[in-house]
Write a structure and sequence with these properties.
By secondary structure, the chain is of the alpha+beta class. It has four domains: 157 residues, Glutaredoxin; 332 residues, Glycosyltransferase, CATH 1.50.10; 74 residues, no CATH class; 77 residues. The chain contains 25 helices and 20 strands. The strands form seven sheets. Strands 1-3-2-4-5 form a five-stranded mixed β-sheet, with helices on both faces. It has a four-stranded mixed β-sheet with strand order 18-17-19-20, covered by helices on one side. It comes from Labilibaculum manganireducens.
């Protein structure tokens, strides 16, 4: 295909950058060439940041970046840099902070104007074409006529961005007690939506980690409202349009308060975490619908987000044929034609009507109770399930003929690790070996394609290439995933690899002053600030993740320095956690580990893998499980192996119960121990 324009993005791997490679804008990727050009020509930089599945990024590209008239201004006045926020979250963090400071809000597309040295001075998100032209002219005018004022603003913003990362170090590591979180929980509870689940506002994002915290809060405090909120939220999401009722998997968020109309993009990181969340909720409640959500979501992942090499793709676009959600919605006439006599029942269950329930068609959303519907049609619930499943499969088959949403086919290490852990957690909850095998395949993919040298990770992989140094979340989530894989397989190589990665993190990411960790390695080129992630949001912060890994790996390997550093990190963050528990929920999970000594369970013997299944199918967030089919030198396993039998040990605070040879006896010991807490 012949293109009128080709810019410097043509050599990039990122699907998002390649989407802009034939814009008339003379885009550069972030790097020395663009930054040197800006300094040599004394031009401000325009940093434009987005991602491949972003609907409004596409809109701004069509309206402005594909316009010859707009591009002429951009090329004349600025050095224009395009950034894929998923590949370069370090750059995104800096300019997002700047725009939030200037405007009070942020989002994508993110468009930020900066000095030739990269210091930002003005920015915003989506601009309609006319506004954008005025902004370009206004910024150019300010640069030519008021450059001193621009420099002053840039200096103030850069200082503010750096100050954001300052964290007070607690000289003493205080005692952690679960009761101390009650006030913070009450404050958070006031934000619960008691009808629809989630928080009491729109749009609604699934926040898997915060709900995982609430599962633990219930477990340790027996606070029933915490569990009720989790199950209400999970029920409503699974019934809603945010969940793909036909193909499985979750969209990024719903634009309304009832989980009905999704922003249709599907992200790997959401689905990996939500599988882990539903798996834990299933372990605790055994609600059968949660099992179905896990199975369907992993079917979707295998079908639509899996590389042949064993990795996972990043996302599916919200749009197809330029229309948001077109791939996912249905006209009733099409469903009638597909399902025939069973359409009426199917349509009533999923709320499909002639008028349609959304502007582009019918979004499938569970509208009625199965028992009530089965009674109405005088059939059994089992028969109803068969009709619904047959209909769902028919729609999924028909959907294959539609033009698909765009696929972001790069693989990111951190997101792969989140999905790897999702598969491990699904295996633990449901016992299906195929989930464990898929997790191992992904771990081997990370080792082969993203692991460089002894313990050096890259961020991204596509078409045989990986060239961006890993960031802290790439390491921290991989360490968590490999530790979980050890727990599921008792293969010590995964634990030892996790420890190798942890050593690399301590060497290259540490802030020696606070004991926290920077987001970027000291091997990377400097940006205007070296950021430090502390807040848990849609994805947990890399600092809370690495703190949990220090605790877990330290506990497994008997490394007290790791455990002490983990406690120091939590002590530093504790004042923030007590003010805003919902945005420090992953820290809150670590809090429980440090407030309640972990129970250590060791399974040693030839039948260790089979026997541990009866333990890990339970929700036990205060249990550290390890084991081996043979002799092991791991501290928890030394002198535990007895030839010819499988033996169970339950220990706490360096004291062990009498060993037992039946898993039922171990579970009785565990029940008695938990009863004391």
């Amino acid at each position: 295909m012949n293109h009128t324009h080709t810019n410097h993005l043509i050599k990039e791997n990122s699907p998002y950058l390649l989407q802009h490679a034939h814009n008339p804008v003379n885009w550069y990727p972030w790097g020395a060439e663009a930054l040197t050009k800006a300094k040599n020509e004394n031009k401000p930089i325009l940093v434009s940041i987005g991602y491949a599945a972003c609907h409004w990024c596409h809109v701004m590209e069509r309206e402005s970046f594909e316009s010859e008239e707009v591009a002429k201004l951009m090329n004349e006045f600025f050095v224009c840099i395009k950034v894929d926020r998923e590949e370069r979250p370090d750059i995104d963090q800096i300019y997002m902070d700047a725009v939030q400071m200037m405007t009070g809000s942020g989002g994508w597309p993110l468009n930020c104007f900066a000095m030739p040295d990269g210091k930002p001075f003005f920015g915003g998100t989506y601009f309609p074409a006319d506004n954008w032209m005025n902004v370009l002219k206004g910024i150019h005018n300010a640069w030519i006529n008021e450059q001193d004022k621009v420099k002053k603003v840039a200096g103030q913003l850069a200082g503010g961005i750096r100050e954001n990362e300052i964290i007070a170090v607690k000289a003493e590591v205080s005692r952690f007690a679960a009761a101390d979180l009650e006030k913070a929980f009450r404050q958070w509870e006031s934000e619960f939506d008691s009808r629809e689940g989630g928080n009491n506002w729109a749009p609604k994002f699934p926040l898997p980690n915060s709900l995982q915290f609430l599962l633990r809060y219930y477990y340790f405090t027996k606070n029933q409202p915490a569990l009720n909120h989790v199950t209400l939220t999970l029920d409503k999401m699974a019934m809603g349009g945010i969940y793909d009722q036909v193909g499985g998997g979750f969209a990024r968020y719903s634009v309304d308060a009832i989980w009905k109309v999704p922003h249709f993009e599907k992200m790997l990181y959401d689905n990996g975490q939500l599988v882990s969340l539903y798996a834990e909720a299933y372990q605790l409640t055994k609600i059968p619908e949660y099992k179905q959500v896990i199975q369907q979501t992993l079917e979707f992942t295998d079908r639509e987000l899996s590389l042949p090499e064993g990795g996972f793709y990043s996302s599916l676009d919200a749009d197809s044929e330029g229309v948001e959600g077109k791939f996912y919605v249905w006209e009733k006439s099409e469903v009638d034609q597909l399902l025939g006599s069973q359409s009426e029942l199917f349509c009533e269950y999923y709320g499909i009507t002639d008028r349609a329930n959304w502007e582009e068609g019918n979004i499938l959303m569970i509208q009625t109770d199965k028992k009530a519907l089965a009674d109405k049609y005088e059939i059994s619930v089992k028969k109803l399930d068969e009709v619904l499943e047959k209909g769902r499969r028919a729609l999924l088959e028909r959907r294959k003929d539609r033009i698909r949403p765009g696929l972001d086919d790069k693989s990111l290490t951190s997101w792969n690790a989140l999905m790897l852990k999702g598969y491990v957690d699904a295996y633990k909850a449901l016992g299906d070996e195929k989930y464990l095998n898929r997790a191992i395949k992904n771990a081997e993919f990370i080792q082969k394609y993203l692991w460089k040298g002894k313990a050096h990770l890259h961020r991204n992989y596509k078409d045989g290439n990986s060239k961006i140094n890993g960031f802290l979340d790439d390491y921290s989530f991989t360490i968590e995933a490999f530790t979980a894989l050890y727990q599921a397989t008792f293969n010590e190589k995964w634990l030892l690899k996790a420890n190798d990665l942890l050593g690399h993190v301590i060497l290259h990411f540490s802030d020696e002053q606070s004991g926290m960790f920077f987001y970027t390695s000291d091997e990377d080129p400097n940006l205007i600030a070296r950021k430090m992630e502390l807040i848990d949001n849609v994805i947990p912060s890399s600092n809370s993740s690495i703190a949990k890994s220090l605790f877990l790996v330290g506990s497994y390997l008997g490394n007290s320095r790791y455990v002490e550093r983990s406690a120091q990190m939590l002590a530093n963050v504790k004042p923030r956690l007590e003010k805003s528990l919902s945005y420090h929920s992953n820290w809150g999970q670590l809090y429980f580990w440090l407030a309640n000594p972990l129970i250590e369970i060791v399974v040693a013997g030839e039948d260790a893998i089979v026997q541990k299944r009866k333990i890990e199918e339970l929700f036990l967030p205060n249990v550290l499980i390890s084991g081996s089919k043979t002799e092991s030198s791991l501290p928890l396993l030394q002198n535990r192996y007895v030839n010819g039998q499988t033996t169970f040990y339950l220990c706490k605070n360096n004291t062990c119960k009498l060993p037992v040879t039946k898993v039922g006896d171990l579970l009785k010991q565990l029940e008695a121990e938990n009863g004391k807490q």
